Amino acid sequence: MKEVILNNGTKIPSIGVGVFRVEDANIAYETVKTALSVGYRHVDTAMIYGNEEAVGKAIRDSGIPREEIFLTTKLWNDDQRSGKVEEAIEASLKRLGMDYVNLYLVHWPVKETYVSVWKKMEAVYKSGKAKAIGVSNYQTHHLADLLEEAEIIPAVNQIECYPYLSQAATIQYCLERNIRPEAWGPLGAGKSDILTNPVITEIAKKRGLTPAQVVLGWNLERGVIVIPKSIHKERLTENLKCTDFELTDEDMTRISALNKNLRLGADPDHFNF
Ligand code: NAD
């Protein structure tokens, strides 16, 4: 399993399994159990996904030592607005049945609180309930504001990122400041034709890879962690193999040129949840 080292020395596997929109507890449980059985050691959930209990149980039942698994969960916007950060992580840990998470992320940059919430995140880190803290969906201007006040630099910024939304500027900004970028929706979230795009399918065919492996490999090569979601064993296995190869500079350039700043999810500057 390929790993990268976060800015506080914590190691994180460069691919994890995401479990957004896996609300059914049995499916969430089986997905995480299967992912761990085929070799994943990194799971990405959130309070708002409604599956922390199932995720935690699957990890506990897997027989894999807790210290070998990297688990992320996230602070939901309502808890950010109310300022109840400590209560929120406590509640997440209770649902997960764990005494720490590896990474706790501020899920969205809520306009009024995206800077002030960070002090409370730092307190969570200092309490040991999260081995690393970070943010999600922060644009460079949100990060710049946060960094002016921060004592601890966010370890991660998890953002929507796939070839039609390459996020080049945000990724460069993060890497230059030792904030590790992480891609959500790396396969186009099941809403995009990216996996049948001729550039992607041609590179896949030429290299004996699948389109999913090509788009995941493109992000990894740029220093971006990926957390593709699948509930199927074959796809989980297929996606995990994106760490086995390197793309050529020419292929990287061709894939990056597909960018059209096309968001499939909410705009971090204009969301209403
Ligand atoms: P994704 O890009 O991972 O796409 C998932 C979909 O791609 C699947 O539902 C399936 O339809 C398809 N798929 C998976 N493997 C495939 C394969 N090998 N070949 C063909 N199709 C395949 O989208 P996502 O689930 O939105 O994002 C991944 C994870 O990121 C989530 O599960 C969640 O953990 C996280 N996420 C975070 C945020 C955030 O705001 N921080 C938002 C959305 C998602």
UniProtKB/TrEMBL annotation:
Keywords: NADP, Oxidoreductase. Residues 24-259 form the NADP-dependent oxidoreductase domain. The keyword Transmembrane helix does not apply. The active site is at Y49. GO terms for molecular function: oxidoreductase activity, acting on the CH-OH group of donors, NAD or NADP as acceptor. InterPro entries: AKR, Aldo/ket_reductase_CS, NAD(P)_OxRdtase_dom_sf, NADP_OxRdtase_dom. Signal peptide: none annotated. The record marks K74 as: Lowers pKa of active site Tyr. Pfam families: Aldo_ket_red. SUPFAM superfamilies: NAD(P)-linked oxidoreductase. Transmembrane segments: none annotated. This is NADP-dependent oxidoreductase domain-containing protein. The lineage of its organism: Bacteria, Pseudomonadati, Bacteroidota, Bacteroidia, Bacteroidales.
